[in-house]
Structure of Pyridoxal phosphate homeostasis protein:
Amino acid sequence: MVQKRQTHSMSSIADNIGSVTRRIQKATVAAGRDPDSVHLLAVSKTRPPEAIRAAVAAGQTAFGENYLQEALEKIDALQDLSELEWHFIGPIQSNKTRQIAESFAWVHSVDRLKIARRLSEQRPDGLPALNICLQVNINNEASKSGCRLEQLPELVDAIGELPNLSLRGLMAIPNPDQPEGELRLSFRKLAGTLRALKQAHPEAGPLDTLSMGMSGDLETAIAEGATWVRVGTAVFGAREKKPAQG
Ligand SMILES: *Cc1c(COP(=O)(O)O)cnc(C)c1O
């Protein structure tokens, strides 16, 4: 029975990637942006390696994971697929930085200097600089991770000095319950913040990346300048409840 259900979901993953890709293209064109300027990060948390293989067969190469232990198991199980690019997008405990620095190409969820320092120190020799985004708590929600906007200038200066990191930009998860107009303003605020930081701190890193937009709001995020949209449900289907944090 499990076998049958999986066979069905595997074939729909390819269809889903096709329709998400068309949504991205349409929104990018509508915004008058370069078609190559928006990338799809397939968020594979809670999904088995076979689901990722199905996505790879449909041409997807970048995958986002939130839970380290779960991610490491999948990275190991998929080692034969050498072209994969792994992005860490979950909350980071400082005792987990070494494995993140060793196994990922990108980290979207850096929100304090201590974590950035450890990632830089622990990035293995021989690997390219680790691409990072600073996660911003854009709606100042008490329950959310991410730094405050006011902390960014100092963080950007300090992180710009770290040798093994490439500071690519900003990431946010706006409160999805706000009205569409306010959601749009949250994305716009993140984009404006990135522009200002790039101007004020030109040496800190490329600062060319806005990681914003998910299954339900990727069009709005792209209209406001997203360069990575992080999409789980619309690629892999509805998630069951999340596993214990690892
Ligand atoms: C789960 C998750 C996503 C994907 O959310 P969907 O609504 O399933 O597309 C994106 N970003 C982060 C940080 C996530 O944890």
In short: The beta strands are 39-43, 62-65, 85-88, 106-110, 130-136, 165-172, 209-211, 228-231.
